[in-house]
Amino acid sequence: MEPIAQCFTLARKELLLQWRTRARFGSVLVFGVTALLIFSFAVGPDSTALKAHASGYLWLALLLMSTLSLQESARLDVQNGALEALVLLPVDGRALYYAKALVNTITLGTLGTLLVPIVAVLYDASAKEGVGLLVLSVWLGAAALVAPGTLYAVLTSRARAGDVMLPLLLFPLVVPALLGSVKATEVIMLGDPMGRVYSWLGLVIAFDAIYWSLCGLLYPLLLED
Amino acid sequence: MLTARDLCKRHGAFWALRSVTIDIVGGTTTMLFGDNGAGKTTLVRLLASAASPTGGSISWFGSAEPARARIAMLSHADGHYDDLSAMEHLNMAESLLPRVGPGAPPRRSPAQLLEDVGLSARSGSLVRTYSAGMRKRLAFARLLQKNADLILLDEPYSALDPNGALLVDRLLGELHSLGRTVIVSTHQVERTAKHADNAIHLSGGRVIWTGLASDAPARVVAAEPG
């Protein structure tokens, strides 16, 4: 079977698993909302300061949520040796990666999109450059977190203290994408008279292109013992 | 059809296998037996290409590259997703497996496979609701679905009730009559010997005896303390 057709079959399986474990999705969302609430308390009632920090805190919440979401996704595969069974079937390693990464992006992108109205309420934020562009920046940033995160989540799920290892490995790596996402979201929320938004989004898109290609090549190697 | 030369496997500082050399003739059933920690599971995993050896070489069907589409393994980890049903597992695998070539026997349908392993009544239930024995039956259905030429079974009798054990007996007989090459790692030496042609005794990661499967039960009795 062609890797692309395998990828679609596996993505269907991933979506079904996500649906059947949707209680976990709800828990991660509540965690994100709670984090945003705590950050807003830390800033205080100053409306100007809240608006200025909204973008950074949105991405901080999404970054923390990504580790929970990615770990859970990898756990479903590693538990009971399900991933190994697929490798031995044999399923193309790239198909396994792209199916998993695609559904992880859908999950994290949806979580991020659901956080946007919460940020608007808690931080008095708005999308001066358009809601569509704001949501686009969230999805591009989510894809940037997921690309290496999917790879590292499988790697660390087999290791002792894997829960701690994932953020340690992932956070330093995604700094450029996070910087681009925070800045892009910030100018979309506060207004962009200098037209910088596409430069920052360009940085995130470049990160996406590099890591979605690179991790797709590395993932099959990771699956071999 | 399956040859391993000087096979070694190290887990950290522990050598699970040391210089194991075996030749498996196509169409035969070979029993691996030995105490816990003898290296049976490690050997099965290496022969199934689920792990790479630290040293030595394996040749599958005359090639150093494992033809995974022709190899099937039943391992301790059953490979199931808890939140999928038995039917969903088999339907997914049906979509992922390579097409059956012209002239090759057709695969059994997922419904037929579940009927064969006695899981039809629970085919739509999520695997998380299954008992250990039912999970094992599903693992057998997935193994049979592949129609593989080389089949490796690691402790096939474990977790099964008497009817389940009879199912394994029947499957071993069926695979033998179909001319499949089967390697069974087991502690049920006397029972498995009835279905096997040859036997390999492992101890401390080494092969200490090879011979006819019918002679294996006597070795186990002789090795028992007291």
Globally, the shape of chain A reads: globular
Overall helicity of chain B: 25-40%
Shape of chain B: globular
pLDDT below 50 for ≥5 consecutive residues: which ranges of chain A? none
Oligomer designation? heterodimer
Question: Notable features of this structure?
Answer:
heterodimer; A: 225 residues; mainly alpha; 9 helices; globular; B: Rossmann fold; six-stranded mixed beta sheet; three-stranded antiparallel beta sheet; 9 strands; 31% helix; 26% strand
Brief overview:
The complex is a heterodimer of chains A (225) and B (226). Chain A has 225 residues and is mainly alpha-helical. Chain A is 84% helix and 0% strand.
Explain this structure to me?
The complex is a heterodimer of chains A (225) and B (226). With 225 residues, chain A is an all-alpha fold. Chain A has one domain. Helix content of chain A is 84%, strand content 0%. Chain A has 9 helices and no strands. Chain A has helices spanning 3-20, 22-43, 47-78, 82-88, 93-122, 131-157, 162-173, 175-190, 197-222. Chain A is globular. Chain B has a single domain, classed as P-loop containing nucleotide triphosphate hydrolases (Rossmann fold), CATH 3.40.50. Chain B has helices at residues 40-47, 86-96, 110-116, 132-145, 162-177, 189-193, 216-223; strands at 2-11, 14-24, 29-33, 55-60, 71-74, 150-154, 181-185, 198-203, 206-212. Chain B is an alpha/beta fold and 226 residues long. Chain B contains 7 helices and 9 strands; from the N terminus they run E-E-E-H-E-E-H-H-H-E-H-E-H-E-E-H. Chain B has a 6-stranded mixed beta sheet, sandwiched between helices. In chain B, strand 6 (150-154), helix 5 (162-177) and strand 7 form a beta-alpha-beta unit. The A-B interface holds A 1, 5-6, 9-10, 13, 16-17, 20-21, 76, 79-82, 84-86, 88-91, 224-225 and B 45, 48-52, 68-69, 71-73, 75, 77-84, 88, 92-93, 95-99, 126, 142, 146.
